[in-house]
Amino acid sequence: MRLALEQAARGLGRTAPNPPVGCVLVREGEVIGRGFHPRAGDSHAEVFALREAGERARGAAAYVTLEPCSHFGRTPPCADALVAAGVARVVVAALDPNPQVAGRGVRRLREAGIEVTVGVGEKEALRQQAGFRSLVTRGRPWVIYKYAMTLDGKVAAPGEGGGGVTSAEARARVMRWRDEQDALAVGVGTVLADDPRLTTRGVPGGRDPRPVIFDRRARTPAAARALRPGAVVVTSPQAQTAPLEGAGAVIVRAGTLPEALRELGALNVSTLLLEGGPTLAGAVLEAGLVDEVRALIAPKLLGAGLSPLGAPVRPMAGAAALRGVHTEPLGPDLLISGLLNDIPRLSAGGEP
């Protein structure tokens, strides 16, 4: 299953609105087929693995990070493909929350006499599929709030833009995160102060996430570097957006943040990396829409400066506490990550 999860990771940021999925076929202790889902509309992971294995798939065990689909979509059902190939056993990391599947794939396999095990590597698979699961069950992207700050909690010195807080190792990790997410969000204040490109740099085979600018009054300059084809500007229903539309921006009009995220979901944005300044980040957190936090802490003391969150002051008892906390050194810096919201899942019995 670890190999299957590694295969699935190759599709991160590239498969929306579909999930990243990996499959490995094993026969007599030997890996005979590997596959991952590269993009929506292309073959699923199981099909690629079965093609590589050929006739050797008969009697083999298939390890799949997501329950094989049981319905006709853009491609035929993968459960039927596994049955036709004659596999003897299927090990599934996590059940599919899509109502068209939701346990039906497992039942199809078992009805064909195939031994099925569910839940191996589920925690890791759920993390990989968080965006897909959020889109299917909530209609909005999985929101990851990322920020970098000094040891005394500052993201920038007074009068300076962002950047330069953390080490090269930490910045390289951020570029990898950008490569793995569908979209990258900032507020208009960041655009006006820094004119960022919002691109991925230094990742072999990397791709740029879709830029999303939250800009209630449509103040984004038409010449902003982030306004490449497909860029989204989220603004109010009343804002005048003709210059932005002329620059090729996709305009999303929303009165509230939940509505804005649902509109992004309708654009097949399943994961949103939030790198906005304190105003936007504070508003999204206060609305309960931050699902995951990735904080990079540099061993520096700045003194006066900008804090990462502009949310209203709350008592310590009301602080948002992360669950499943993970810590990792990145060069001289420290990454602290965890969840604020649960990843939607199904039980082994096919129940939410």
UniProtKB/TrEMBL annotation:
Residues given in the record as substrate binding sites: R178, L198, R201, E275
Please give the biological process terms from Gene Ontology that the record holds.
Answer: riboflavin biosynthetic process
Q: Which CDD domains match?
A: Riboflavin_deaminase-reductase (cd01284)
The record's remark on the cofactor is:
Binds 1 zinc ion.
Cofactor dependency: Zn(2+)
The UniProt GO MF terms for this protein read: 5-amino-6-(5-phosphoribosylamino)uracil reductase activity; diaminohydroxyphosphoribosylaminopyrimidine deaminase activity; zinc ion binding
Residue intervals of the CMP/dCMP-type deaminase domain: 1-117
Q: Which residues form the signal peptide?
A: none
**EC number(s) of the enzyme?**
3.5.4.26, 1.1.1.193
- Record-annotated residues binding NADP(+)? A148, T190, D194, G277, P278, T279, L280, A281, G282, A283
Query: What residues form the catalytic site here?
Result: E46 (proton donor)
Q: Which Gene3D superfamilies match?
A: Cytidine Deaminase, domain 2 (3.40.140.10), Dihydrofolate Reductase, subunit A (3.40.430.10)
Tell me the residue numbers annotated for binding Zn(2+). Answer: H44, C69, C78
The UniProt keyword set, sorted, is: Hydrolase, Metal-binding, Multifunctional enzyme, NADP, Oxidoreductase, Riboflavin biosynthesis, Zinc
Q: Which family does it belong to?
A: In the C-terminal section; belongs to the HTP reductase family. In the N-terminal section; belongs to the cytidine and deoxycytidylate deaminase family.
The record's function comment reads:
Converts 2,5-diamino-6-(ribosylamino)-4(3h)-pyrimidinone 5'-phosphate into 5-amino-6-(ribosylamino)-2,4(1h,3h)-pyrimidinedione 5'-phosphate.
Checking PANTHER family in the record gives: 2,5-DIAMINO-6-RIBOSYLAMINO-4(3H)-PYRIMIDINONE 5'-PHOSPHATE REDUCTASE, DIHYDROFOLATE REDUCTASE FAMILY PROTEIN (AFU_ORTHOLOGUE AFUA_8G06820)
What's the name of the protein?
Riboflavin biosynthesis protein RibD
